[in-house]
Design goal:
By secondary structure, this protein is α/β, with parallel strands linked by helices. The chain has 2 domains: 120 residues, Rossmann fold (3-Layer(aba) Sandwich); 96 residues, Orthogonal Bundle (Arc Repressor Mutant, subunit A). It contains 8 helices and 12 strands. The strands form 3 sheets. Strands 2-1-3-4-5 form a 5-stranded parallel sheet, with helices on both faces. Helix 6 crosses helix 8. The longest helix has 14 residues. The protein is elongated, with a radius of gyration of 19 Å. The relative contact order is 0.10.
Length: 229
């Protein structure tokens, strides 16, 4: 299920969007202002933020700017929802967000824009180099470096690691991993376990297998922090 953080101070707008997206595969997390938005980001890692510009206290534009300066959240997908329709405002908004929709808007248009942004920012489409400690993945060169040394890794393990590194700390079930990485729900779930073992085998000599954690009865996650010994 796709997690969506809705940062909007007007309760009727939040209720309308929750109702409009209720039949979709979205889990809606609500925040009334930027402060609540940051707290939710610490506890959860949404896939997309729907962000109002005119928030009490810190504006949505400043909220987005702070996210872009944060190493953890700089790649967070953001769609701004605002009544500010001037061209100058749109230009400012699009410098910080992935899309900009003016109020009032059609919920069907919003759904289409959300799908487009999520598809564009899917792991297979992200081109920046990703690095945690000495574990480095380059999606353009299709290469994984471990402490500066190239690793021999299969294509499925590469896609799996890419997905994990672009979606850290969040637990995914086997079914979700099949949908995101294999994009094929007809593959048996035990296939995921086989490729997890292969991925860990590649990472183990360098100690980076610690990042691939099994969450019993749930699934797997890529954990950025080394577990306490």
């Amino acid at each position: 299920m796709t997690k969506v953080l809705l940062v909007e101070d007007e309760a009727p707008v939040r209720e309308m969007l929750k109702y409009a997206l209720a039949d979709e595969d979205y889990e809606i997390l609500e925040a009334r202002d930027a402060g609540e938005g940051f707290l939710i980001l610490e506890r959860h890692r949404p896939d997309l933020i729907l962000l109002d510009w005119m928030l009490p206290g810190m504006s949505g534009l400043e909220f987005a700017r702070r996210l872009k300066k944060d190493a953890v959240n700089r790649n967070m997908a953001i769609i701004m929802l605002t009544a500010r329709a001037e061209e100058a405002d749109k230009i400012k908004g699009l410098k910080e967000a992935d899309d900009y929709i003016t109020k009032p808007f059609s919920t069907n248009e919003l759904k289409a824009r959300m799908e487009t942004v999520l598809r564009r920012l899917a792991p297979g489409n992200r081109k920046e180099v990703i690095q945690y400690d000495g574990l480095c993945l380059d999606p353009v060169a299709h290469q994984v470096m471990l402490n500066g040394e190239p690793a021999e890794i299969g294509p499925t393990e590469f896609r799996l690691l890419h997905f994990f590194m672009t979606h850290p700390d969040r637990v995914y079930t086997r079914e979700q991993l099949l949908n995101h990485v294999w994009q094929n729900s007809h593959v048996e779930e035990r296939t995921v376990d086989v490729h997890i073992r292969r991925l860990r085998k590649v990472l183990t000599p360098y100690g980076y297998d610690r990042h691939i954690q099994t969450v019993r009865t749930v699934g797997y996650r890529f954990w950025r922090t080394q577990p306490a010994k």
